[in-house]
Specification:
Shape: elongated
Radius of gyration: 22 Å
Strand content: 25-35%
Helix content: 25-40%
Largest sheet: 4 strands, mixed
Length: 424
């Protein structure tokens, strides 16, 4: 497996382009299944998860065309195999997003229970509950969700769906399925992430009738068919937030081109309280920082958007490790999302974990060592820690990083980091 070698202690200066959002790109690739006409997606990031999803679409009979850095064209007109087998989806949680579109377009689907990062339980029962209310019969057999329309139905039906918990992928699945359902669907307790609003905008461009996206209550009036469209994937707020934390920790002055400050309010508020200067500018976000030793540690509690995102918890913890003072971090979304702590301890961090709470005591320095990435965001956390540690840090198992970051080491190298990928 490839690994990253990082020699810490360098300040970061320059400009970084923020890629399209992984968490917007994956549902939008599935949304292309809803139409028999071609869909063109711009700003599609080059990620392992995207490559996995494209392999899945090809397996279904979908045509995929992409030039080196140009738009991605998806033609689901010849969709013939409404299945997502385990061999193709075992590394990717987002495969469950094929369930709603396949049911809506083909009336049947067989989707393997998904994999992804081992950060905790992410049950699919809410997906099954909502799609059942829309007229689907779903059973789980031998690790597969097997779904079909209820007897006598030719289309899904509109429904009032109130989930027991806020679920991002559940909201996306219901939203896509409802666009082709008979009648009106109302989603209560809907997730409000920018990626969901971006998905809704793509669906509207395809002819869907949607109101309230970006709020906790979404109304969808089903239509008989959707047409093709061209849509630009929104900038990745988690990638932008990761680079904000990296620059804040190392010190420096960096422009994150295309970054959306309005999607990162909770993170930017904490960075400013820590002592970094973060400003929205004409084409992105500018961050200036004196460096971690002059920053003040900040505690926070992860929660659903627009609160502090769980996907930024590990990266901000890396900053807290070398800031002044003590910070308390509470993780409320995933029960297994402190796995990066043991690796930070190898670098000299002082952290104590009790259940869902971690207490971080800032240290004047970290020391380079070999560490192992355990999941996607933990990988980014260890990269940030390596950027500020004395000596050399080797981050192993970076295939996690490649699932969600588009050429992270090249972007960091471009703004002054001493970082290189060492092939297996």
């Amino acid at each position: 497996m490839d690994r990253l070698l990082i020699r810490g202690g360098r300040r970061l200066h320059g400009e970084v382009p923020v890629s399209g959002a992984k968490n917007a790109a994956l549902p939008q690739l599935c949304a292309a299944l809803l139409s028999a006409e071609p869909v063109t997606l711009l700003n599609m990031p080059r990620l392992q998860d995207v490559s996995t999803m494209l392999r899945l679409l090809r397996h279904m009979g979908v045509g995929v065309e992409r030039s080196d850095d140009g738009p991605l064209r998806i033609d689901a007109g010849a969709l013939h195999t409404p299945e997502a087998p385990y061999e193709l989806v075992k590394t990717m949680r987002a495969s469950v997003l094929a369930l709603g579109p396949l049911l809506a377009r083909r009336g049947a689907a067989k989707v393997s229970l998904p994999g992804g990062c081992a950060i905790g339980s992410r049950p699919v029962d809410q997906h099954i509950k909502g799609l059942t209310a829309m007229g689907a019969d779903i059973v789980v057999e031998h690790g597969d969700m097997i779904a079909r329309l209820s007897a006598g139905r030719r289309r899904l039906k509109g429904a009032h769906i109130a989930t027991d918990m806020i679920t991002v992928t559940g909201t996306e699945n219901f939203l896509m399925a409802a666009t082709l359902a008979e009648g009106e669907t109302v989603l209560e307790n809907a997730a409000q992430e920018p990626e969901i609003a971006d998905l809704a905008e793509m669906l509207i461009a395809m002819g869907a009738q949607i109101e309230g996206h970006g709020s906790s209550r979404i109304r969808i009036q089903g239509v008989e068919r959707l047409h093709g469209c061209s849509h630009r994937v929104v900038a990745d707020r988690i990638e932008a937030g990761t680079f904000l934390c990296a620059v804040a920790a190392t010190g420096g002055d960096v422009l994150l081109r295309h970054g959306r400050a309005d999607h990162l309010d909770a993170v930017i508020e904490k960075l400013r309280a820590a002592g970094a200067d973060v400003q929205a500018v004409a084409d992105g976000i500018r961050v200036q920082s004196p460096g971690g030793a002059k920053l003040k540690a900040q505690g926070f509690r992860t929660t659903e958007y627009p609160g502090f995102p769980t996907d930024m918890q590990a990266q901000f913890m890396a900053l807290d490790c070398i800031a002044q003072g003590t910070a308390t971090v509470t993780e409320t979304i995933f029960e297994n999302r402190f796995m990066h702590v043991d690796e930070l301890l190898r670098l000299g961090a002082r952290i104590q974990v009790d259940g869902k709470v971690a207490v971080i005591e800032g240290q004047p320095r970290l020391s380079g060592a070999t560490v192992m990435a355990t999941d996607l965001r933990a990988s980014a956390c260890l990269v940030i820690a390596g950027l500020v540690a004395e000596g050399q840090t080797a981050v192993e198992r970076i295939y996690h990083l490649d699932r969600g970051y588009d050429c992270m080491e090249a972007k960091l190298h471009g703004i002054g980091a001493d970082i290189e990928r060492v092939p297996a």
